[in-house]
């Protein structure tokens, strides 16, 4: 249906399904009416591809994936959903607060909107530019995921355009198989156009405590398990290993009244420290825990500046540029995640980095870190305990249950982010060794990143029959499969041999040409203004 043919009367009926017929503020009906018109146009575009029997890619307007996006592709092969970028409604009912959110709303804009009502999502991705739709279609586990699970577990309902152009609503009560099956399936079962997201009460601060680790992964995992079993006391939980033996487990507790006497710490201003460096300084050689009061949004986006620690790789690339507090202050605009991702994609340097999140059973996580220590020597490592999703799922999973016979055991995510071998052949070998070790230890990748598995290896980790049945049932055969979207082909005829490069490609790869090009394109994007203009920084005044 053409968007212009949708009536306000039909929108009113549609609205009751999403708002439980609860009266809404003035103007809501108009916003939802415009949404329905936009979705109808997306559906018409999708239907045209289906009728021609052609596959398409989805353009969202931005990406926080290290895989190549639809940017720059032939417009005739892309469905553009970038206009679906609004928070349509925040329902602030004390018992069942929720928001209706379009898929291309990034985390910082979502948080800014919900904080107006003193509410926040239960799971907030730590990079401000990650979108709601990306969180659902991808895998997004954060420091609250030990309690709430992956981001999609906080959604009650979605609207999705099927590959034949039909628009359906999914929830636990309606099309449940698609509701859960599309989570983590990287857009291969349809185009998400709206979500209903649960909210929770916000507090002014996260009382953040840094617990030193001196005894390696055994001690780190013991502390993670200890705090995982205290969900009433802890709201956020993650960890950083600075070496094989030394690190910190970090707990967070929402509060409006921090413990008297503890300092307030922020991480958003150019003169503030990068979070991981601050943690390293806080634990020092101490054996005692230390606490601070971090304003809630500052905590949620604490890893934005420096992109956890991947931003330090830019200084390594542009040597002899020093990496210190002055250069981080002076170059702050370029060191937020939106700018870093833009530069990585434009420069091609993302293909010379190991940027992988890897979920493992606790029983084999130490063996995996031993392997990465000897093979890559990449530090820091990020540790994040994960509550599993119900099987089958495209998220990392482990079919092992607790002693009650029903609860799936938690997994431990290891964030491995750092410089890879510079030569193409060595780069491929390193990634293949990493994947082989994961398979050996029962671990799985998050699918936002590049994947080098063979197709047989890849599907051995998932319930392919269930996935294929969903694709058949919901007319998704015209869409790329998950494997087709995440697998990297590097050479002629789809082989993994290095491509023969033209002289212009060889020139582009010469230092510092590609890096300067990426920096230029990043500046042209003006993404730095989104960090400068962020209002969440002022939610708790300095």
UniProtKB/TrEMBL annotation:
Chief place where the protein resides: membrane
A GO biological-process term: steroid metabolic process
Keyword line: Membrane, Transmembrane, Transmembrane helix
Protein localization: Membrane
Chain ranges of the FAD-binding PCMH-type domain: 21-202
Superkingdom field: Eukaryota
Enzyme Commission designation: 1.3.1.72
Cleaved signal peptide residues: none
Any single Pfam family the record assigns to this protein: FAD_binding_4
PROSITE patterns, per the entry: FAD_PCMH (PS51387)
A GO MF term: Delta24(24-1) sterol reductase activity
PANTHER family cross-referenced by the UniProt entry: 24-DEHYDROCHOLESTEROL REDUCTASE, FAD BINDING DOMAIN PROTEIN (AFU_ORTHOLOGUE AFUA_6G14300)
Name of this chain's protein: Delta(24)-sterol reductase
Organism in which the protein naturally occurs: Recurvomyces mirabilis
GO cellular component: cytoplasm; membrane
Annotated membrane topology: Single-pass membrane protein
